[in-house]
């Protein structure tokens, strides 16, 4: 049944957990739409024929709807639409809420390519490698104009907005290669901004990750006396620390838990902060990014509004690196599993 | 088609005897100089001029549409390069929306019919009415000047930061749209005041024709929402020319703010386009079924309901823009309400046919097409509002197909129905019924053949605004282009027989449809001051076809 409807509606194959969920609702909605169009259309056709005009000056009865009819007219669509809403919103919450054990990948849209970087080090362009059956969270931004990250086979889509991070997630269900398209018009080569997701099985993924590590080892062969020593992988967080030092974050922010001019970075990620307007929020990637770009937007209680904006002073990757660095300073109880990913040789 | 004279069917309006005609010539021949047309304050002449201009704009927008469709015939480059393609789809959208769909029905038929339906001699502010026509033309000239000198490649949504970074000519086109906005506001204001103050004695609020109700609801949206568009367009121009930094993240701005401001106008603008068509269709279904509207008040109030909730639904354009999940839920529910109000109208239209006396003429053929486009287009709209389904569909061809079905399909059906229904009233001539039905069939079939494949393309995942596309999408694109050709053929056929009818058409009777719409209570075409002799007396609600001999208690079902 699923196969048949999938073909009839020209849907791409289902390659993520969300795809199955969203398609089931899709079938339901399409059936209701078709059925109600059919019923309305048939009723209308029957009336057109049954009540066709017999004479030029024919008069008609004065027919008005009873309260019962009016009630039916309102409640029938309302019930169906609310049913769609309830199922649809539940699924929407599902796709908007990455699981805690998701592996992170940073995605940056740029005219006209997709760049992917794993927290453990930068990766290439336009090809995203992920393991099957493991949730992957994408943290998406753009360095120029709006783009939108779309994988039809996964049924996921999220805009890439310059100046902020948006997020979405997926769990690929079967190994294979799936197309990435850009769905927000972004200029001349908008339609050429294609990429692919390569989903690897668990073994392939391990092998591939190991391969990356080996390459990394070979490159460092000369520098290392003892090959048995596993070199520390180049990590995005390390770069973040470097950048943070260069641009002067540590003049105001400590990393040892002591509050200074600004709040400490220690344990900041995931902490719930009370703001000066009395509200509170949980520190996530979006908040950290916003605080760099527009420091006065949400001030934490007890700290003056003295931070300058870093808008235009930090590139997309630098911002991502600082966010990743701050995330490493979290207290261990916030997330159950640390982000995992392959180890790469940085492209510098 | 045999137009039968039916003086007895129009109580109150006694067609003037022949010698009377010389003292009260029809508005068409009352002054024949160019100046008497260009500087006229007569709402009917202004309406006719609107009609001519919007038809020209429709031709321009339609030509762009065909260029776009032809380009998409093959996966790679077909007839134009990528930059030209990007400009073509942008201009298709800008021209069709700002110069055709928004002004078409209110400008042409609203202007012509509203005072007639209210028993008034003119609109409340005739000079403002003429000004709104010229504002539209000034805006159009500036925008078209911009199109010729560089063009714009942002899509009609002008999303920042692309629109402020592109090297194409954005400013004149946005400025043109800004001026067109004033035209829209002036028309809306005029209609609101006319409806409030110029109803003839006897026309109470609940005796107003439903077209007036629809125009009134539309006018409220025009007056309240258009200023927001004006503001946001100026901000974009300022951003591009003077680097304001309101939407540019590199200057501390927020690109998503633009989307909020833009859709705060542009979502209600969808109802500026479809509400008038709902009004036209309420008139037509009643006239050709010879029935009072089933659930008059429900249809009238649902227009106001759509106008009202239409303001609170804009966020459904931003489900995947990074807005909060909670926001998405709120906007999803509010959007559903629009669907409920539309469903009420649809059910009542079908109910109107029940126990009617259906005459299947060309306008009624368009009503059938309209009913189908509205149900299917409206249902896909609610499907979009279902937040999780929007995720894969957003910005794909499914969106293109959906809004062409509801916004364009409904508007075109109503526009064509209105031209045919009111043609004898406006020009005093009859068109050829047979050709009318043929072209209606061609247009409805062509429309389906164009846009049904696009629903499937959207399902398959083809993003919109694509110059080139992966090969697997080709079959459906070819089908869609073939459908577009059929659609174009339908319009060409109707253009030919309508122009023919204008010149050589049979002279129409005062009320060839035996309609009991209020606008038929005067001659066709009407004299300059709308009514000859004493004003008609409005004792019955519009479209009251009950035999007075057999008048009985309303029959409720």
TrEMBL record, chain A:
CDD domains associated with the record: CuRO_HCO_II_like_2
Question: What's the chief localization of this chain?
Answer: membrane
- This protein is called cytochrome-c oxidase
- PANTHER family, sorted: CYTOCHROME C OXIDASE SUBUNIT 2, CYTOCHROME C OXIDASE, SUBUNIT II
Q: In the Enzyme Commission scheme, what number(s) does this protein have? A: 7.1.1.9
Print the keywords alphabetically: Copper, Electron transport, Heme, Iron, Membrane, Metal-binding, Respiratory chain, Translocase, Transmembrane, Transmembrane helix, Transport
Record GO biological process? ATP synthesis coupled electron transport
Q: Where are the transmembrane segments?
A: 25-49, 70-89
**Segments forming domain Cytochrome c:** 235-330
Topology in membrane: Multi-pass membrane protein
Occurrences of domain Cytochrome oxidase subunit II copper A binding (ranges) = 100-211
From TrEMBL, chain B:
UniProt subcellular location: Membrane
Q: Name one GO molecular function term.
A: heme binding
GO CC annotations, alphabetized: membrane
- Any one Gene Ontology biological process term? electron transport coupled proton transport
Q: How the protein sits in the membrane? A: Multi-pass membrane protein
Q: Domain named Cytochrome oxidase subunit I profile: which ranges?
A: 37-539
Q: Which UniProt keywords apply?
A: Electron transport, Heme, Iron, Membrane, Metal-binding, Respiratory chain, Transmembrane, Transmembrane helix, Transport
What is one Pfam family matched by this protein? COX1
SUPFAM superfamilies named in the record: Cytochrome c oxidase subunit I-like
Q: Where is this region: Disordered?
A: 1-26
Where would you find the membrane-spanning parts of this chain?
A: 48-68, 88-116, 128-148, 168-193, 213-237, 257-281, 293-314, 326-344, 364-385, 397-423, 435-456, 476-503
Its main subcellular localisation, reduced to a broad class, is membrane
What the record says about family reads: Belongs to the heme-copper respiratory oxidase family.
Cited PANTHER family: CYTOCHROME C OXIDASE SUBUNIT 1 (PTHR10422)
| Entry protein name | Cytochrome c oxidase subunit I
Question: Native species of this protein?
Answer: Melittangium boletus DSM 14713
At the highest ranks, the source species' classification is:
Bacteria, Pseudomonadati, Myxococcota, Myxococcia, Myxococcales
